[in-house]
Amino acid sequence: MIWPDEAQARRDILEVGRRMYAGGYVAANDGNISARVGENAVWATPTNVSKGFMSEDMLVKLDLDGNVLEGTLSPSSEVKLHLAAYRSDPGILGVVHAHPPIATAFAAAGIPLDEALLQETVVMLGVVPVVPYTCPGSRELAESVAPYVKEYNAVLLEHHGAVTWGDSVMRAYFRLESVEYYAKMMMNSRLMGVTRPMTEEQIDELLALRPKWRVDRGGRPRGRDR
Ligand SMILES: [Zn+2]
To answer: How far is the CA of 224 from the centre of ligand 1 (A)?
Structure first.
């Protein structure tokens, strides 16, 4: 296993934080970001800091049990969710959690993103299920997400927000952008009063592209009723 360069991982976390904040995916000090850099080492964002204004000395290095290895600030209580994701799939090297407003409206409504409306979304994400409600920062929250990691690329947390993961922290972040876009398209189709998913054949054809696009999970979104 070749682990990511630690200095690059820390820079990527800061960059993702700036993009998340500038994109309106988090308000105030919301959200958290982490990158796995070793067998038992993760860099993560601290609690009580705006993700748009972080410097490298604010980041915290943890082992997979949540013990602090480096850094002076406290890690976010939601980092437990990140660690559970890393423990459940060793291929995951980045996790991002935020409250992007349209995806979070679906999370509040308890509606999964599961309609085959757009080609890229079918291939890259598939289904984004809703993880049932748990208390923020709780062990239940961390444990509730872990079972979804191997099957999906992202989840919505009921009445809370979104979590994405991937083989790098940047890839996890781009998935967050794709989740918000997916939610925007589902909302727009509802506003238009026309929801017209693809046919099952079209979905089959797109799912067959996943290996080439380096996507190994995601589930099958709903096609057109006939
Ligand atoms: Zn949150």
So the answer is: 33
